[in-house]
Design goal:
single chain; mainly alpha; 1 helix; about 90% helix; about 0% strand; Amidohydrolase
Length: about 45
C-alpha cells in the first residue's frame, strides 16, 4: 500500500505534462493553419 502515494504523484506529473504538451501541440497546429491560410491567400493573389 505504501506505493500508492508515489503512483499518485507520478500520475499528477503525467497529467501536467500532457496538459503542457497539448497546449504546445495546439499552438503549433494553430501556427501551421495560419501559415497554410496565408500561403493559400498568396497563391490566390498571384492568380
Amino acid at each position: 500500500m505504501y506505493s500508492i502515494p508515489h503512483h499518485h504523484s507520478q500520475f499528477d506529473f503525467d497529467e501536467r505534462a500532457m496538459l503542457i504538451g497539448g497546449k504546445l501541440l495546439l499552438s503549433r497546429i494553430d501556427s501551421y493553419v495560419r501559415d497554410g491560410k496565408e500561403s493559400l491567400h498568396h497563391v490566390e493573389v498571384k492568380k
